[in-house]
Amino acid sequence: MAPYEPEQDTSETGGLRAGRRKATRYVVPVAVAGVAAATIGLVPALATSGDPKLPDVTAQELIEKIAASDTEQLSGTVKISTDLGLPSFGGDMAGGLAPGSGSGGGGDGKGSAADPQSKLMELASGTHTLRVAADGPDKQKLSVLDDAAEYSLIHNGDDVWAYDSKSNEAYHSKSAGKAGESGKKDAPEDLPKGVPSTPKELAEEALKAADDTTSVKVDGTAQVAGRDAYRLVIKPKQSGSTVGQITVAVDSKTGTPLKFTLTPSGGGSAVVDAGFTKVDFGKPAASTFDFTPPKGAKVTEEGDAKAGKHGFKDGGKDFKGGKEFKGEEDLNGLNVIGKGWNSIAELELPGGQGIPSGGSGDVPPDAQRFLDSLGDKVSGDFGSGTVFKTRLINALITEDGKVYAGAVTKDALVKAANAAK
């Protein structure tokens, strides 16, 4: 293996930032709806082997190579495993809790078992195999393969189809039909947006965070899905982050990221590890993107699904006031503390009350013990509260209804809460 340059701080090279800005313009559009896959991955042993000898490159040159990559045609297989330290989101739980799932998907409700917003949530945990294909901004296909079933999401021109073979249900919607700033047609509003779905998209999201709080370097080579690649390593300089490092395997010829691995600072297996086991950069057959619902399949149109969205007949309005939830607009006093990898979101829960304490008398003892088991009790200058932990994202909810959340340790959350007082 050829030697590589010493660790290079992004603060020393404005060219890195320029490369990152350009990189965000080139996203392989594998799944038009995206995948709930900020937490998707590839078992490394299945994807990487060898240590090919390649010409030396600097971190800046490799980032520029990613930015210059204009890959829009490919097909292949992605192996996915996720370890957030959470219970599995598969099956009925995913269908019932995911936004847009209606009454849990299918059955007697207005929802559909093929609705992407509920089905793709299953990728948030466990191990999965995907087949992907893309031919420009108007043709993409993603299939999730199970032992005895297959779920497919197909974008072809103005049409978006999703089909679940297990339930024999299909979901149909229309693209907005007009190109946005990126030159791509907008996805239907019911489908997830802005969620990384390929190693390339995940890599670009990571590079957005690379500022003077980050070190970026090239650290050797690898072979992924039979292709020679460089390893780009991104690490937080700050202490207190739950992110240990991010490693991106970049195809040496095309500049396309082939594998993305996020390891936690606490050690152990990767939290996010996404990559190809097979990849072909040739043009997929046009028939790949054709879809006709099978005979007897229940077909749900986008407009019909909206009637059952979130289990409410009026499309997501609450029981009492009929007010539609608008996401961040409804969060009270959302504030960001800190910078870089140690950024912490601070907000206030409606009603100004957090998790009931053991001495409040507001809940029965058995229920209180259950609540206490969900997280770690902490206290400080801010008062007291509960920290809910995963291997990547942690959140502190104080008894007076404040929330502090981020990819940081429990101690960092307590420190932020104390400083806010």
CATH A-level architecture of the largest domain: Clam
Report the C-alpha radius of gyration, rounded.
23 Å
Kindly give the count of domains: 2
What gross morphology would you assign? globular
Order of helices and strands: EHHEHEHHEEEEEHEEEEEEHEEHEEEEH
Our count of helices gives 9
Terminus-to-terminus distance: 53 Å
> What is the third-level CATH name, the topology of the largest domain?
outer membrane lipoprotein receptor (LolB), chain A
Average pLDDT figure: 74
CATH class of the largest domain: Mainly Beta
Low-confidence stretches: 1-13, 18-48, 88-104, 177-195, 307-330
Any idea what the CATH superfamily of the largest domain is called?
A: Lipoprotein localisation LolA/LolB/LppX
Number of strands: 20
| β-sheet strand percentage | 25-35%
Helix content: 10-25%
Structural class: alpha+beta
Describe this structure in words.
Helix content is 17%, strand content 32%. By secondary structure, it is of the alpha+beta class. The protein has 2 domains: 299 residues, Lipoprotein localisation LolA/LolB/LppX (outer membrane lipoprotein receptor (LolB), chain A, Clam); 95 residues, TATA-Binding Protein (2-Layer Sandwich), CATH 3.30.310. Strands 1, 2, 3, 4, 5, 6, 7, 8, 9, 10, 11, 12, 13 and 14 form a 14-stranded mixed β-sheet that branches. Strands 15-16-20-19-18-17 form a 6-stranded antiparallel β-sheet, with helices on one face. A hairpin with a 7-residue loop joins strand 12 and strand 13. The protein is globular, with a radius of gyration of 23 Å. It starts with 7 loop residues before the first strand and ends with a helix.
